[in-house]
Structure formats: C-alpha cells, structure tokens
Design brief:
- The chain has helices spanning about 1-10, 15-35, 80-90; strands spanning about 60-65, 75, 90-95, 100, 105, 110-115, 130-135, 135-140, 140-145, 150-155, 160-165, 175, 185, 190-200, 205-210, 215-220, 225-230, 235-240, 245-255, 260, 265.
- The strands form six sheets. A five-stranded mixed sheet has the order 9-15-14-11-12, with no helix packed on it. Strands 1, 17, 20 and 21 form a four-stranded mixed sheet that branches.
- The protein folds into two domains: about 1-35; about 60-265, Immunoglobulin-like.
- It is built from three helices and 21 strands.
- It is mainly β and about 270 residues long.
- Helices cover about 15% and strands about 40% of the residues.
Length: about 270
Amino acid sequence: MPGTRVRQHGKLRGWQVVFLCCAVAVLGACSKTAKEEPKASNAAPAVTYFHVDPATAGTVAGTIRFTGRKPRPKPIDMSSDPACAEEHHGKVFDEPVVVNQNGTLAEVFVYIKSGLEGKNFEAPTAEVNLDQHGCWFVPRVLGVQVGQPLRIANSDPVTHNIHPMPGNNREWNHSQGAGEPPITRRFPRPEVMIPVKCNIHSWMHAYIGVVANPYFAVSGDKGTFEMGNVPPGEYTVEAWQQTLGTKELHITVPPSGKVEADFTFSGE
C-alpha cells in the first residue's frame, strides 16, 4: 500500500543512525572546545613598583663647588617687548653660570644615573611648577620624574610660548597668553636634559631633567643638594651644568648611611 511504502522509506537504517550520532557528538565537542578556549587579552602586564625599606634607606648629599674665573653675565635686550623691559626697570643680564657668594654653583642638576636598573618607581602625583615670570622661566633648571605632571603657568602680562625640544620625547609647543590658566604636561621617557625656549622671547631658556627614579635635585643659593630615602647600593651620580658640562661620581650607600658626593666645576 502507498502509506506503508512511505513509512518504510521514512525509517533510518542502522548505519545511518550511527553516523548521525557520531556527527552530533563531534559537533558538540567542537562547540564546547570553542566556548572553553580562553580569549586573548590586550591588557598590558601589571607593573610591580619598588618600595624602599625606610629602616635601611640612606641619604646622598653634597656641594657643587666652582674654581676659576667667574663668567661675565650676558646683557639681554628686552626692548622688543616693552612690557618685559618694564618688569625689570633697568639693565637685564643672563647668567648661564650662577656662582654663589660662597664660591659654589646654583642651578646644577644632580641625579642618580645608574645603579637602580630593574627597579620601577611609581610616578608622583604632586605637580612640579614652571612659571613664566619677569619674562624668564622660573626656575630655569628643574627635574621631574617620568610620568609626573609638570604644571606650566604664565604670571606675566604678555603672551609666552613654551617649547620643549627633546630628543627622546615628543616635541611640542604651546602659546600661553596673559591670564590664561596653567597647562599640565608629562614626559613618558627619561631624558637629561630637555632644553626649553620661548618662541616669542629669544632670551628665555629652561632645562628639564626627566628621570626614571625619584633621586634628583637642583643646587640652590648655597650650592648644596640632598637626595633622601635612597636604598643601599652602588650608584653613579651625575651633575649637569648648562655651560660647564657634566661630572660623575661612583658612590656606595650603606644601610641607613649618609654619603657625601661633592663636585667641582672649573671655569676659564
């Protein structure tokens, strides 16, 4: 009968049942494997920061001395911008080498150059300030840690332009008018030193030392510097001066010790 023929043709043979069961099992296993396969992650690996043991931390301090003839200050003509000239009420001089009354040097950048390899230091959140005041960069020599915010202000009644010219970081320049709010920038890579100029006032210069660790300082009006919380170890300390170049010292900081690292620069 026709109905019977249809039912017979609709039945699956034994080998067909076995084939379908195998196919379903394979597909199920593949689907399960695909679901269980871990997804690739593009997230950067976590950075482990080094923390100094305060019980063993030491101090590096020193004096930057100067011998020889003191360079003559260079006269600056600010007549191209009367507002700048008015800020000084007289002759203006630039001193690339600042010799203090006690025969020491100011504006010398000192930092630990080597000995901290393999240690990662977290960037401070505290801002380092650079002002444009009296048509000068103040301070002229400063340091920041990699990733630390640099806050740049304009306290003058004129427009300035801050233009860092790095070799290991991205170059940029920013015009900043009188009364405009401060700007904040960061440097992602170490670099000693980055020269800075103002495209509007050619006599304005500054230098920024960008260091991968927190151990840096700038000598002041007594010619001294100090770096605290230094872990015990052997280090190379470098002192940089805008005109006189660099000098290095190799030191060993013992646990809880204080090391004197004095430098002497010579003039003509």
